[in-house]
Every structure is written in structure tokens, then in C-alpha cells.
Amino acid sequence: MKRRLYLAAGFTSVALGTLGTVLPLLPTVPFMILAAFCFARSSPALEARLMNHPHFGHHLVAWREKGVVSRRAKWSAATAFAISIAISLATLPLPWSLIPLGVAVVSLTWIWRRPEA
């Protein structure tokens, strides 16, 4: 049962990460990292396939071995958060519009403190 849940979560993460390649505000690499985590606990073959992927593989290996986040990924995250904050400030009433700002501050603080390649 546990293996099936991890497998389902892995496939869901891959699907969301794949959507993130075309949707500007949906992150890709964090979902692929989550998918690798789930596949490591459910399907070593799928984990290996993801880790050897030509586009995502090097990000996943860097994260797993050293907790590295590239500078480009950091700037992409900051840009996505800025767009999200601008949209929320324009469309949501106070105090609800401040929630994305709080999430961005916490998340970006953590992201920017990660080592770079």
C-alpha cells in the first residue's frame, strides 16, 4: 500500500513538473525532486530514469548530492514569486493578498541560502 502511494505521488509530481515546463508560475524542478524522492521509495527503475533524464537529471543529482540550487533557478523562482505577488495584490483584498508575499519571503529566503553549483 505504501509503495503504491509513493508511486502515485511520483507520477503526480512528474505530471505537475511537466506542466511547469509550459506554465510560467508552476515550478518544474521542485516537482521533479519530489518525484525522484517518491520513486526512490517505490520504483528504483523510474528513479534511475528520472535521474538520467537529459534535461532534469543534472539538477536532481546536484540537489541529491550537495543540496545545490543553480543561480538561474533562484532567479526564476524570484521572478515567478514577483509575478504571483503582483497578481495577488491586484486581484485579492487585504489581508488575503499578503499571503503570497509571506510565502515568497519564507521560500526565497530558504532558496537563496542554498549553495550554488
Automatic annotation (TrEMBL):
<dbReference type="GO" id="GO:0005886">
    <property type="term" value="C:plasma membrane"/>
</dbReference>
<dbReference type="InterPro" id="IPR007401">
    <property type="entry name" value="DUF454"/>
</dbReference>
<protein>
    <submittedName>
        <fullName>DUF454 domain-containing protein</fullName>
    </submittedName>
</protein>
<keyword id="KW-1133">Transmembrane helix</keyword>
<dbReference type="Pfam" id="PF04304">
    <property type="entry name" value="DUF454"/>
</dbReference>
<keyword id="KW-0472">Membrane</keyword>
<keyword id="KW-0812">Transmembrane</keyword>
<feature type="transmembrane region" description="Helical">
    <location>
        <begin position="96"/>
        <end position="112"/>
    </location>
</feature>
